[in-house]
Write the structure tokens for this entry.
Amino acid sequence: MNQDLEQYHDIIEQLKPMINEPEFNQILAQVAGSIPKQKRFLLKMELKRLARPCSRIIDLRGHVDGKCKLYEYENQTHYLDDMAIDVFERQVRSFGEYTVGVNEAVLSTENNYRVMHKRQQKEMTRAVKNETVAAPIRQDYLAPIMPFGEFSQRNEERMNYAMSVEIFTENNKSMLATTVDVSLGGLKLKISKEHRFKIGDRLSVQFRGIEHEYVLDNRQGVQYVVEGINRNVDDQRLHLKRLFDILMPSFDRFLERFIHGNKRRYKVNLDNTFDAIHKKTYEQYYIPNFTSVPVYIESKDGNYIPRYALANDCNRQDIFYWNNEISDLKLGYLFSDARIKQCLSYGKSKQETYLYSFNHIKNDKIYFYSASHEELLANPSLKDLFLGYGSRKVSWRVYKLQVQEMEPKQSHRPLSIADSISQSVKRQNQPPTPRLMSRLQHLTHIALLTNLTDKYNTDCFQKLPLDRAKLPRLKVFGHPRNRPPENIQVFRFKYANQRRETRFMLRSKVQLTVEEMVLEGNTDDISINGIKLELNTFFHKAVDTKVHVSFPQLQKVTRKYDLKELPYTVRQISAERNILHLKVVNDEQSTSTKAFFEELIKNNRSKLKAYKDEEDIPGIGEALRNIYANNVPNVAFFIRKEGAKYVPDAVATWSNQIRLTTLLSFQAPPGKFNLTALFEGQNGPMDFIRSTLSRIKPHQRPVMNELFVAFDPSKDDPAEAIKSCFADQFATDEQRRQFISQSIEKGQFIALKVFLARTGRPDIDHLQSEINYVGVYAVHKAKQLEEKLWNVHGVGDLLDITDLVMSRYQFDAMTISDNQDSQQHHPQKSLEIEQLLNAEY
């Protein structure tokens, strides 16, 4: 492939099967929507060149480090080694025939002497140029990529069992093989690599290893089809699926009894179950600790309508910031049809925007204001006025909004084990009920809202000039109270560390007394035995302090109970020391306190319905959680402790953010991300992760920080290619702006918002069926896995906020756009493509 297009290798591989389809141009626009039009044209021309039919004979004898043999394809004879054969067949499946692209791929395998010599020459040239060999990337900064929700479910148990079998092809050619595992519906075989198979081949299998021990009436053999092939240096593994076009009831009964009677002795294959437990545990760490708010969007008649939001303990305060004075949720103001469509009009990797909001209280009523980045650009005379005034308000918020597609079927998450294990497993594997799916069937997108508000996103905007005489003009961004937004129902996925009783969202004024000091605030949620409240000021005492709480607003609705100076105990304090979790003190006075809240909740259940944890349709919270886990747009990362060190353990994402994933993929082997930017700064090791995890406690809201990265992928030394600093390491905004400018000059600037929290214990109850299953057959492996998972100490999120940061520091739109499109490899001239481009235009 041309060097100028090497950076688009993954996109080209993705598009190869589509090149001859009539919808190719449309698919190209979708997949490569983020690539400039000129580059997209080059991609199209390259794909058409690769797809041209080819008739060249390939003879690799003497050209590769491998043993070549005769290989026939459509009356053509080639001489290929095993690696080349694998590449040939894979590429033919992509293109549908033997093409130029197939030919070039076969001539460029890793063991080709020409390719190896070229690579050696390149490395020598690089070493001479740099005089010293570049320092290799630190292995402890690499983390395996582990997409949530990606594990296989088996319909039946596979027993590890080796026995000899004889297989016959459709041409009645016989060969011997050995089973690796056996199930009622399939086989895995080990066979010599000299035999050639392809997907779809029908085979007849005679079970020679057991026919002498058991009387089997299967003279015609058992029919299978090849579903998969794995080749290695010594042999190949065939994955066979049973064909039931010829019924063999006596063999079926025998095989079922044989597996059931011997599975304890020969062990069941548990690979997929271990994989499922592994990934589900990381999900259990992540879901309670992300601060973003997933909002589920319904599409009807060409309009996009927000329907549901998924809540956890870390994002609740961002959801209920949008409660008005009577506790009606107005979160829907942010998710207008126009804003969703604006995001969807961008390329697949850029369907996002930034939102700015504040509220104004007048006559005890809350008025909400919000504007998107695009709306401010469309009103340039009001842009600085809105940002300058809003950032001076206590209620100021800055959000990132990301929109992506989803499918309702992603709500179903069966166990990794078969229904036949037990009735309990069968029950858990049942798909969602028709009633539940009817509530999800029109959902098409997730709009992920992330609160980015910090001093950097406040101080910069506060420096903008403010003409208060023009403030009435901001009404254009106000949300009219007489036009309420779509109602968004909030659901919570219930995990282990939930309260023992349902919480009800209620915002009401309180006065908290501690040592004759009175602090004012508001309740966030209530229950019979406790409350969560947000104070207007700092709480200076410790956990377990006894306090007294008065409810002046609630007192107005009852004469039966005295709601002054009710005793509570502080059970939890937020990192900012303004959010408290209180528990009722069990004394004589607590009886009337509990009675009041029990009566209040009972009499107002319909009003509190939208905000409670109980679900009007059982399972909808878990369904929404499963959908989100299959569509995590940011990069979740997990940190484990090795002695006194904190190192990356794993990452999980479905991200298509090219800028972020390109940075994390730098010099990382396939299937891993390089998290050097989080640990090594331009001035040496950074202490953010260690210091944060050593001081915060589980279940606290994640700590947020901002990371600046100068990325120059032309450098081979990771220390030169990736130079990062946290924003608080700069003394002034001018230093931050200078860092950005220098990064753009040398390569690319990338800004990340980093969220980091301490993990709590995983919800083992949610995994109990699978844990019990592996415990029956491999107790030692189950314990090893449990020890590994319990060693995960931290969980976090990485979010690309580059455009927001550059806009905040007054970089113009052209510079921001150029930095977006800055390619991750230095382009090199391609004479053929350039000439073709000139000829076309």
User: Anything to note?
Assistant: The two ends are 23 Å apart (CA to CA).
